């Protein structure tokens, strides 16, 4: 026969090249200095006369950074002002300090697949009646300061906003998906990518790396600031008169400080502007002002900045049909220690237990310049609530994902088992595992069926996530349920005829509660006792389950690993979804993530009882339609069975 060779596929993490702290600093805009004052809270009427929510329309000049290290957030807010529809979804404009004023304001943010409304009061941090954090150039305008407060409430505190990534706020304002480009590895068509991105309403930010924490937010001789977030607000190409280069490509950026600008070519007062006609200057809205906004040549932009982030919009972000939209599918999931937190491909014994999502690529791209039959899509894996839980010691996990091609023979809903990943290499995967809130990457694959495996780099790390798939054409992604609800003797294992041997299984007998459950399961006539026929049926069940347990108790340790519990339950004839496997692990696994024989039998007795009580046919029950038992298997009904 054919000898199968186990595939060797090691997942690389940036941790193998440099320390994780160094890599983290490459992507993190952080804040090191303590506040210069002890703020108090005042409402706007105490700060100035005639307070206004918005003065003359919201613009990027309304955002000036204060003492809080949240330039990453303010750079995203500046980008938000470039699109009124996006802005006024986040910042409802009908609010004011006069008509119908009740001392509260509300803002809307995208939160892991849903838009949530955040309500705040009108008191903001001040020192000597001056705003401590974000402020507007207009002393009596407060929309940006109140937006910052609402965003702080979303994450639990102002403190939680110290240090971050511009992409986080961009996505929270739009529900979009962000792509990173390192300038040293940027594609040749980067200018075209940036131009098209702004045309379709995308938000864009950039920064200069500073790997030395002490040098964060330090100015260079050219006026740029290291470790600091900037907004990209325009990309234009202009004609130059009487110049050897007839056209020049320019980029407009904004420093959220509201000051400190680039002083090189094409800065506010540079000599290059004389080569442009008045019409070209008007098109660029050129003006000389110390407002934090400036132009620079695209080539200088590439030389000085180290990375750029582009947040592409999703279909629900805009209603303008002229602007390019994506189709998106959203799946929520979680990694549970001992059950579905299997780690990356470097851990083959547990990798297969991670949540799985089936991806169907149905329509190839329409690009007439490309003869390859392929589908373009973007996968975004986002871990949830880590910033909010930072005060409790939570840090970002190192996360990533892999994509495997599956054949039709595997079925539509089958949870791929360990052997599949041992003998098949991934078709594609993220560039590296990294500890960012979201890992995103663009792919092109042939039409077909694939399975996406999101995971943490290390196993046994618990957390929640959402997995989003964006595409320009019709494609689908669905969670693999692990699999459908049913109970049947599909998996037959050869069982010996020997009786239970307590010594081999390290058990002193079943607990009283387990015995009561057994009697309740098999007592068909309601007498509280088992007749000979009922006992024989129970004993056959126990012997069958003993054989399954011993099959997975390969090291004779009198227990099975919680990750193997999924297969053991399958072999017993039960098909459960991932949520129920998580509950089983939490209820029956010990601190070492092992399940002993007594707990194993108790679990199967309860499963058998659960299915029997919801089924009217003769035992064993069969469930062909999982919807018929959904009410029974709802969490609030299932928990009483599982938790004693």
UniProtKB/TrEMBL annotation:
Chief place of localization: cytoplasm
The name this protein goes by in its record: Calpain-3
Cell compartment(s), UniProt: Cytoplasm
Subunit description: Homodimer.
Reactions it catalyzes: Broad endopeptidase activity
Pfam families: Calpain_III, Peptidase_C2
Domain Calpain catalytic: 40-314
Annotated organism of origin: Oncorhynchus tshawytscha
Cited InterPro entries: C2_III (IPR033883), Calpain_cysteine_protease (IPR022684), Calpain_domain_III (IPR022682), Calpain_III (IPR022683), Calpain_III_sf (IPR036213), EF-hand-dom_pair (IPR011992), EF_Hand_1_Ca_BS (IPR018247), EF_hand_dom (IPR002048)
MF terms (GO), sorted A to Z: calcium ion binding; calcium-dependent cysteine-type endopeptidase activity
Domain EF-hand intervals: 510-545
């Amino acid at each position: 026969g054919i000898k199968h060779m186990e595939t060797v596929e090691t997942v690389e993490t940036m941790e193998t090249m440099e320390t994780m702290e160094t890599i983290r600093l490459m992507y993190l805009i952080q804040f090191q200095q303590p506040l210069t004052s002890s703020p108090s809270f005042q409402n706007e009427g105490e700060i100035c006369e005639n307070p206004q929510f918005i003065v003359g329309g919201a613009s990027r000049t309304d955002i000036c950074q204060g003492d809080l290290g949240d330039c990453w957030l303010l750079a995203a807010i500046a980008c938000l002002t470039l699109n009124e529809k996006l802005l006024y979804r986040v910042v409802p404009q009908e609010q004011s300090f006069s008509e119908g004023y009740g001392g509260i304001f509300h803002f809307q943010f995208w939160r892991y697949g849903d838009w949530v409304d955040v309500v705040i009061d009108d008191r903001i941090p001040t020192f000597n009646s001056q705003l401590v954090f974000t402020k507007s150039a207009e002393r009596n305008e407060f929309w940006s300061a109140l937006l910052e407060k609402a965003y702080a409430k979303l994450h639990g505190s102002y403190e939680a906003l110290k240090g971050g990534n511009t992409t986080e706020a961009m996505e929270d304002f739009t529900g979009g998906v962000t792509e990173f480009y390192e300038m040293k590895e940027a594609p040749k068509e980067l200018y075209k990518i940036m131009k098209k991105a702004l045309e379709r309403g995308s938000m864009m930010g950039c920064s200069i790396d500073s790997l030395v924490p002490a040098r964060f937010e330090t100015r260079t001789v050219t006026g740029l600031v290291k470790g600091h977030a900037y907004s990209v607000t325009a990309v234009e190409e202009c004609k130059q008169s009487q110049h050897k280069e007839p056209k020049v490509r320019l980029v407009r950026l904004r420093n959220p400080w509201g000051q400190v600008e680039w002083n090189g070519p094409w800065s506010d007062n540079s000599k290059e502007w004389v080569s442009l006609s008045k019409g070209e200057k008007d098109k660029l809205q050129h003006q000389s002002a110390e407002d934090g906004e400036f132009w620079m040549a695209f080539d200088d932009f590439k030389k000085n900045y180290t990375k750029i982030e582009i947040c592409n919009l999703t279909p629900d972000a805009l209603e303008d049909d002229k602007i390019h939209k994506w189709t998106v599918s959203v799946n929520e999931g979680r990694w549970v220690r001992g059950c579905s937190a299997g780690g990356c491909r470097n851990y083959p014994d547990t990798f297969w237990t991670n949540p799985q999502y089936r991806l169907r690529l149905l329509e190839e791209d329409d690009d007439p310049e490309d003869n390859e039959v392929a589908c373009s899509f973007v996968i975004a894996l986002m871990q949830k609530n880590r910033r909010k839980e930072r005060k409790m010691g939570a840090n970002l996990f190192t996360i990533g994902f892999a994509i495997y091609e599956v054949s039709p023979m595997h079925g539509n809903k089958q949870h791929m088992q360990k052997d599949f990943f041992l003998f098949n290499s991934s078709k594609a995967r993220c560039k590296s595992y990294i500890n960012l809130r979201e890992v995103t990457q663009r792919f092109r694959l042939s039409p077909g069926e694939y399975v996406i495996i999101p995971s943490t780099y290390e196993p046994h790390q618990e957390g929640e996530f959402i997995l989003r798939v964006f595409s320009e054409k019709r494609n689908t992604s669905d969670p693999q349920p692990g699999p459908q609800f049913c109970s049947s003797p599909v998996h037959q294992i050869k069982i010996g005829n020997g009786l239970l041997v307590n010594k081999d299984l390290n058990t002193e007998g079943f607990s009283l509660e387990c015995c009561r459950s057994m009697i309740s399961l098999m007592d068909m006539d309601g007498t509280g006792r088992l007749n000979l026929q009922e006992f024989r049926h129970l004993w056959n069940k126990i012997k069958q389950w003993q054989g399954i347990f011993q099959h997975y108790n390969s090291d004779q340790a009198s227990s099975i690993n919680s990750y193997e519990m999924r297969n053991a339950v399958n072999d017993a004839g039960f098909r459960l979804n991932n949520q129920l496997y998580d509950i089983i692990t939490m209820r029956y696994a010990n601190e070492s993530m092992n399940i002993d024989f007594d707990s194993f039998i108790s679990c199967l007795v309860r499963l058998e009882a659960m299915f029997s009580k919801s089924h009217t046919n003769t035992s064993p029950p069969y469930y062909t339609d999982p919807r018929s038992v959904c009410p029974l298997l709802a969490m609030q009904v299932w928990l009483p069975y599982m938790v004693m």
